[in-house]
Design brief:
The chain has a two-stranded antiparallel ribbon. It has a domain at about 55-165: Hypothetical protein, domain 2 (Endonuclease III, domain 1), CATH 1.10.340. By secondary structure, the protein is mostly helical. Helix content is about 50%, strand content about 0%. It starts with about 30 loop residues before the first helix and ends in an 8-residue tail after the last strand.
């Protein structure tokens, strides 16, 4: 969309040099490794401008509708809402649920999603008067807890809203991120909550700004769409970097008693 909200990179520039050691099988990435991966993906793929939307509220609606469906289906539902003149927090909060269900039917799971949208819209009106900046005084943990308390808002949707609506530094531990980190050698715990708990603290220790974390999520998702399985990822620019003998964007450090740092081979095959 020509008028879509675009992400800026106004924070301090990150050092573009990569670690000068071989990739290792990862238990969990370090902040430096994550920053290196971000730089590589941004350089190779360019800015994604994600999340695609014309307004903040469109991001909120899209974050709910995209659950368990493709974004092309979300775009159809968004178009229906706009055509019906029902594209505002007040309109969605007060309209008949049956009418809302029909408008968002292309996104699937429309009964639960209609309830989730109305719950979110009502909370957004009553809590912050439809203005994200009114949430500035609410600590991150408290804001995320409130979102998780709403009907139909799970961890992934809450983290998307934190990152893109309320401009909080957050990590969206979605399926694309899981597949990428697993491909790079991370041992990924099962379930969104466990994966988020394992990686988010490291992600938030990096020097990446909110805008860069927004862009990183877009890059990870676009990479996952372009390279859908490990065979495809093995042909990607990330794997090619390893195959040409250049330092990988990620490594791991593990302690071996009496032997200092131990580096093992990467989970990227030539």
């Amino acid at each position: 969309m020509s008028n879509s909200r675009r992400l800026s990179h106004r924070s301090r520039p990150l050092d573009d040099s990569l670690p000068s050691y071989q990739t290792a099988a990862l238990n969990s990435p370090s902040p430096a490794e994550i920053e290196s991966l971000f730089r590589l993906m941004l350089r190779e793929m360019g800015p994604t401008g994600w999340w695609p939307a014309d307004t903040i509220f469109e991001i909120m609606v899209g974050a709910v509708l995209v659950q368990n469906t493709a974004f092309t289906n979300v775009e159809r539902s968004l178009a229906c809402l706009k055509e019906a003149g029902a594209f505002s927090p007040n309109a969605i909060a007060t309209m008949r649920n049956a009418d809302l269900q029909e408008l968002i039917r292309p996104s699937g799971f429309y009964r639960n999603k209609s309830r989730a949208l109305q719950s979110l819209a009502q909370w957004y009106r009553q809590r912050f008067d439809c203005e994200p900046t009114n949430a500035l005084g609410v600590p991150d943990e408290e804001l995320r807890h409130e979102l998780l308390g709403l009907f139909g808002i799970g961890g992934e949707t809450a983290d998307v809203l934190m990152l893109y609506v309320f401009d909080r530094r957050s990590f969206v531990a979605d399926a694309y991120a899981r597949r990428l980190f697993a491909f790079l050698g991370c041992r990924i715990p099962a379930g969104y909550r466990a994966f988020h708990k394992a990686v988010a603290p490291v992600m938030l220790t990096t020097g990446l700004s909110t805008a860069q974390l927004q862009e990183f999520h877009g890059l990870i998702d676009e990479f996952g769409k372009a390279y859908r399985d490990d065979a495809a990822k093995a042909e990607s620019f990330i794997a090619r970097r390893q195959q040409t003998g250049r330092p990988s964007p990620m490594r791991a450090e593990t302690e071996s008693p009496g032997n200092g740092l131990v580096l093992s081979r990467a989970n990227i095959h030539g």
